[in-house]
Amino acid sequence: MTSDLPVLLAAVSILSALHMAFQARRVGWSRMKHKIMPPIVTGPPEFERTFRAHQNSVEFYSVFLVVLWISGIFFNEVLAALGGILYIVGREMYFTGYISESKKRLPGFYMVLFVLLFLSVTATVGIIQSFLDKYLNIRLL
């Protein structure tokens, strides 16, 4: 194995996958607590908020992984990994806040949006720089 493997990106990806699995488990615990069998997705407000918080995480997950890896490979792995950790923290803030009260999801949601914007910008800058360098022999950074 070589030292140029994206170890930090892989580590953040595993942590995020485990976090997603833990969120799914929490939905399962909420189902048991409120006696709601699949495929039913309605019930007491606490269950619906828990279910919706997880669904929102699922909806954003593919976007997160794409911008995490592209930012890390084309721009800077350390910055991308730090962004990934902040994303996981923001997701947890969002999830736990949403379960207690829907308005409490907002700080975590804004944090997640900021991280996704940061990773998207760094990914785009990295791709543009790589394109210019590879195909036009122009080095900006």
Q: Based on DSSP secondary structure assignment, what is the total number of beta strands? A: 0
Tell me the span between the first and last alpha carbons.
29 Å
- What's the shape? elongated
CATH topology: Four Helix Bundle (Hemerythrin (Met), subunit A)
Helical fraction equals: over 70%
Mean pLDDT: 97
Q: Hey, roughly how much beta strand do the residues contain?
A: under 5%
User: What string gives the helices and strands in order?
Assistant: HHHH
CATH C-level label: Mainly Alpha
- CATH architecture verdict: Up-down Bundle
**How many separate domains make up the residues?**
1
Q: What would you call the structural class?
A: mainly alpha
Rounded radius of gyration (Å)? 18 Å
Q: What is the assigned CATH homologous superfamily?
A: Membrane associated eicosanoid/glutathione metabolism-like domain
Low-confidence stretches: none
Quaternary class: single chain
Specify the biggest β-sheet: none
Q: Specify the number of helices.
A: 4
Write the layout of secondary structure elements.
Layout: H1 7-34, H2 45-74, H3 77-100, H4 106-136
Describe it.
- The protein has helices at 7-34, 45-74, 77-100, 106-136.
- It is mostly helical.
- The longest helix has 31 residues, at 106-136.
